[in-house]
## 1
Amino acid sequence: MPQLIENLGSAVVVLRRVRAIRGEPADLDEEHLVRRVARGDRAAFEELYRRTSPWLTVRLRRRCSDDQVVAEVLQETYLAVWRAADAFAGSATGGSAVGWLWTIAARRLIDAFRRRAHHAQPPTAGVAEPIARAAEDEVLDRVVGDEVGDEVGDALRTLAPELRQVLQAMVLDGFSVRETSVLLGVPEGTVKTRARRARIAMREALS
Amino acid sequence: MTAHHPGEQLLRRYARGDDDIAADQLWAVESHLETCAPCRGRLVPDPIAETVWADLAPLLEHTPQMPSARPWRRRLTAWVSPTAGPWLAMILVVVFVAVLLDRLSKVAPGGISLVLLIAPVLPVLGVAASWGRTLDPVYELTASTPRAGLPLVLRRTAAVLAVVVPGLFATGASLTQWLLPCLAFTAGTLALGGLIGVTRAAIALVALWAAAIVAPAVALSRSPGAFDPAATPVWAAALALGLLVIALRRTAFTRLGANR
Amino acid sequence: MRNTVTAPTTYAWEIEARDLRVRVGRRRMAVDDVTLTMGRGVHGLLGPNGAGKTTLIRALATVLRPTSGTLTLLGGLELRELRRRIGYLPQDFGYYRRFTVREFVEYMAWLKEMPGRDVPSAVQRAIERVGLADRADDRLKTLSGGMLRRVGIAQAIVNDPAVLLLDEPTAGLDPAQRLRFRDLLTELGTDTCVVVSTHLVEDVAAACTDVVLLADGKLVFQGTPTQLAAAGTAEHAGDSPIERGYTALLAGPKRHGSW
């Protein structure tokens, strides 16, 4: 019996090794790449960068016209991934590694905006951040879905640009009210009002 | 996935940064790219990304990576106060020494068991280490967090009992004799702790126990009546009272303790 | 899950105190009848030792219950919900010596009930913001006093708080670190209500948008650093206009000789 357990144990170890060795970085998905990066695999990191940076760059550039800032955020993001890959690998299970890559980059983009903003805006009425999910948010979740249905599409298209901007920042990019306010350079109260108007408009268009 | 992959032209316009893409299309492209690796691969490498890589690659050499996380540690600190570890170890050592002394002095006059004498106050030490200004350097910070409060304190107390109770059980002492006093003292520490601070409560109760039970027992060389079956209702009542006070004063654990 | 939009609760000020009194011990009223409002920006809390700065910050951090008066934070959220949006660095910042920087900040993120998924990136970001990325996995006992302060700041900002309370955060920082810390304060102040207690008047001049001056538990002055400076004249002691203003206000007609 102990013999068997020992054999089983070494079999598992061998299997793990095989799995780790097998497959070039090119064959792995992003989650596996991050796990490899966590073990210090430079090739895996390069592959992860090669695969995700074009997308991340474009997405950042569409939110920030300053190439300098985009480059800064890119570098900080991937350096953080390199440094803390082990922690990220643990939390990215089940979720998409690409999704949290965006989250990391998005927070840093906001930080970069904060650095630039300093005291440009006068303090205005603050607004409590969302606490619970409202029932209407289910509607917005349909919007986030991969396919945008015709009705939702029409509703989005007819939305005023400033409302759409807020909706995009909060729903698609996952920013909070405060972060959206920094990103768009408008007071939090305005963000909140626009978000509410956008939601009402969407609901009306969909009903 | 049966997603609609964006067409070549739309993707090119998106990557170029065109701002005349219809809102719904833009939205669909962005959320699609987040989930579709092949489509991400269709994007042409960006010059910015390439410049950044040129800067980044040499940096990796000098940038240390975090060591493998210790997930057990995270699970442990969710239950055991980070300060309680040494105290729990000490409790086990004390139990071990008590058992040893009991075995050595079979002559124990009147059959007093040292294990029994210390059993009720053992968890008190662990509880004091789990929530209190004196023993926990992060007490004030912990008290300011949303997780502070009775649930956290009870969690940590449960962890202490999870060490103490099996430890005492392993000594072979009669379960019926020590379990109830042990629980009553634990509840008492928290109940009193809500009023005067857990550390003070622990000291007070240990002193009370030593003066009222241990000292007479040693002086008179006979097993204290506190462990008689007749005392069971008293212990049960004490436990119930302790729990009641804790329940009534549960918000005490969300603020700084009374002792300063 | 992504952030979602819900019905708004608007409030004019992040912090609103009315006739606030906080008793310490049996008799001493450490904060006595303070009425003030604070919004976004960096608020410097000044005052001599024993003026009640720490007690006021503790009350704002919700660890001390006001004896009387009202204290409304973020429009009056339920305590637990409110605490998720507060960052706090106590004056005597204690830590667990055997934890690494990352483990400690992670532990605090857990205590602050942050969603598990967000924790690794939030922790990494907080550590980077205080400039400790290279020491992230070193044990706390190996760090210098200035670095430990920065760990304290990192744990305070890890949950991206709407109200950030820092009690003497610059103690132990060397001049270069203080400069970087002021930059971080200014950055945080753009969308956070930051309250910094300090006895270093130059910190206030450099980073604060607003100054609150306490003496004997009472509010002596609230205004901009410029207004504080304007209160002083050449006759008052001090090396800078702000220091002279500080001395002037503390040595006001009612409290001459006390400092």
## 2
Amino acid sequence: MSAFEFNGVVRFTKVGTVYLIATVILAISAINTGNNALYIGVALMLGSLLLSGMASKGGLKHLHVDVGAMGEVWAGRAGRGTLHVRNASRLWNIRDVVLTSDVLAEPVLIPLVGRRQTVTVEVSFLFRKRGRAHVSAVDSYTRYPFGFFLKKRRLPVTSEVVVFPQLLGGSASTERFRSTSGEQTSANRAGTSSELHSFRDYARGDSLRHVHWKKSASLGRWIMKQTDAESAKAVHVMVDPCLPKHGSPDDFEEMIAAAATFVWHASRDGFDVTLSLPRATFRARDGEAASPLFRALALVEPAYEPVHQVVDRHTVLFTLGGQHDAKSA
Amino acid sequence: MTRRARELEMLLLTMFAAVPLYFTYAIAGTALILFHAFTGLMALRVLLGRTPELIPASIMRWVAIAYVPFYIIDWMISRSAIAASTHLVLFIAAYQPIESVHRQNHAQRLLTTALIFIASIATSTHITIIPFIVVFAYFVFRQLMHVSHEETARSIGHEYGEAPAGRAAGFYLAGAIVIGTLLFPLLPRLRNPLVRGLSGPLAQSATALSETINFNDRRAAQGDATVVARVWMSDEMRARFTPLRLRGMIYDHYENGEWKQSLRGLRQVPQRGPQFSTGTAGGHEGPAVVEMRPQRGKVFLPPNTYLLQGPQTLYEGPARETYYTYDDGPLRFEVRMSTETAPLRPSRPRAQSGYPISPAVETLARTIVGNEQDPARKAALIEQYMIRNFRYVPNDQAAEPITLERFLLFERGGHCEYFAAGMVALLNATGVQARIAGGFYGGQINPLTGYYAVRREDAHAWTEVWTGTRWMTFDGTPPTQRPGATQENPLRLYAAALSDSLTFFWDRYVLTFGLGDQISLFEDIATWSGETIATLTDRLRSGSRTIPMGNAAMVLGAIAGAVAMVLLFRRRRRRLFDVIASYLAAQGIAVGPAMTMEEALRQLPPEAAEELAPLIVMYEQETFGATPDRRRARTLKRKLAELRT
């Protein structure tokens, strides 16, 4: 939006520049001729110019913006939300206000905010990176009332949002996360019976009935039994946050994005997804929202030391240790 | 508002901007009619739901190219760059709506309309231009709001609904008028000494008075309410010097069938400082103020004036005891009058006017005066005789011009000049020197402002009689039939007074407002402030409980305003160190006297420190560098202000 990028807080528009030149010429004519009719014109034009500046400044000065409800926000993908724009001025209405920000997918236009009124507008947020994002300011612009000036004011906003990791797109990604139900029902995969199939770590929401007490006691943490029927519709995803010396932050982000994409596809296909991170495990059962998993992935930070995690043979592991791709252990 | 309605409004606004040009005669009416017809047809097309493309744009472009040489021809033919340029602007205004079908040019059209508007107001001097300006400004504001909306829509790349702008335009119009009214008296009135202005003198009104009186010519004077002078007098002065007379002509001899003035050129009026002496005082005296527009340099003064102040130049002439000035525009005289003003240089007037007095007229005169010997008493007798036995016939009701002889002996009816000349003839017949004086009589007192408004329709002639030391005024015209004697409807009278008050305000405080008025305004404000403060101080010291609250409020308001201005100025003039320290204080860091900005910077959170660091570098360059740079300081302050927001 180059039209709104400029230094300072005010810029003369083309219309304003022409108006100013016309006013100066008229003023010179008035002084030169002593014609008071021209002086009336000059006084009125200067009055309009002054009033225009006062109106646009007065209007923007009293604007307040609050971030309203925001749905799931994914890095690199526009998400819907609302902004509440309040005009606290007792005098000035303000029109044609454009709001821009690094976190807004596109400029937001508000045709009119009456004095002492609040307007709620639907907006698209766009965050580049996953994690905890702070929306600290929104720039407001207006040409109102006469289009002589483009006025700018930075409006402070206090809002925090957790941005989920970027979901990888493209055909390769689709193929990579294609549903493989045929393969998953192979002999070494969990069957449909209620017999014990494998063990896994406790995840929030697990019933205590499935705790394997003996193993839990020996390992010192909660270990859950997993039956054939559960395992057939379950995916265990583990993310190793260790960033090796040869790895870059971008590689790490890509790995997190890959893990999130995997979880998203698995969740969409109706699998129970268990996500294991070094100090927490999250689970999304069939039909449940996987938001806690994505939230966890959004907030995971790279670790610079190896992290101990237990991997079984059915775990889908995302790590930068040796290979940069997902692998099964 | 729909696109069609907006287009229609724009076209009508352009047409409206040119309307005053019909009345100011700045350009030929033909060009204006052509312009209005063309634009009107375009407006009609728009009204019918079509585009304003009256002529295909491709053809209009060729016409526009052809207009360039025509502009030069037009300039040469009209010998006026202003007229040719106004024609050009009208052409552009007619061309642009056609162009707008293919190209967005709303802002340019508004500019062209504004140029036409400027041409209109630049050549207007009548108060009716004010409602024109107000209406025009209202619609221009609406259109400007639309332009602003369009520009915003273009900048974000898509159209969106426009909120109604009518009320907002009204609001901004009121604000602009208030600010404009405050600015108007403050704008500098210094004329460019190198290039004089292009505008001519203000329109002058003429009187119904002629240079000579010829009874063979039919007078065609019509009722004209144009004010030619305004006179302020105290109640005491009104009692002594009304009905008011303003004299500008003296017809003192009869020659070749006409009553004529004795022309003798212009002579300097004796001056003491800024005061001009026109006579010697006698009897009761007092001041008055006369404001008038000289009629081709001729000044009309009360006959009893002996001293006046106000004009830069004043000459006696072209006839004796008439006055002339080279000053331009409406003038304001402070005059002193006395009941027995005598000429400054007494000289014996003509023994006789030269009017051929017939035996019948002489007989009539002798019959009227009898054995009376005193010139003033003779004049009074003749005056009374004429008032009782003659009747006033207005100019427009007179059947045919008649001779003075016929007026005196047979008709016994005519207009004021017959009465004045008849009285001179009768007085001459009895050996008394007399002359006809021409000017204005009476006037109407304006109940709203307290001045006498003297109008063109108050033109009158009367008689002046030489008593041996001074001229005395007599008037044979019946008083009930003199100018202004007719009773008018009070409502109409008040309406006329209101209209005249507005015109007076317009003339005095708008059209003729100049550098002198600006100086007077500031002097008045300073004097008023000084007096008010002194009064308030005295009352406070004396413990008086009655303090004029209005004055006190105004003084307090002025002091508060001045303090606010000083604070604002000081705020703008703050040192860079203070500005940055203030910013850091807002961030919770108190910059002590022993602390450097670098140290303060280290206390900030990393993100904030990163933003502020370049500004600190600029600050150090500015403060400790070899050459201070104002631009750098301004940039620093601006960026700091941005950080604050």
